[in-house]
Design goal:
globular
């Protein structure tokens, strides 16, 4: 039951992120904070977003500590069209990552 609730929350997060940008037909950009569990810190999560989904990924901040046993976080900008971003967010949701949308204002001082 807990997994189903988590997946529903991830789906709602993805939909709310996309609903804010769905009015644009041209390439768009969203900013996210991804919380990366220890089990994924040695996996090519970001590389998959680039190679499989054709997204342009800019890592703007990260906090990953080797052998600390803690979750880390990565701040990213994703650029692509709506379908690419939607597919990329679905991929991240399938990994059960915690995803938080960030405002697009420059200088918002939100860092990991």
């Amino acid at each position: 039951m807990r997994i189903l609730n988590h997946r529903q929350n991830l789906k709602e997060t993805r939909l709310s992120l996309l609903s804010k940008i769905s009015k644009y037909n041209s390439p768009i950009q969203i900013r996210l904070r991804l919380y990366i569990p220890q089990c994924y810190q040695h996996q090519p999560v970001i590389s998959q977003l680039i190679s499989k989904y054709g997204l342009v990924v800019n890592i703007t901040g990260a906090s990953l500590e080797k052998n600390a046993g803690n979750d880390g976080c990565i701040d990213v900008q994703l650029k692509g069209d709506i379908s690419q971003i939607s597919s990329g967010l679905s991929y991240l949701a399938s990994l059960n990552l915690k995803i938080i949308g960030k405002p697009n204002a420059d200088g918002d001082s939100w860092y990991c």
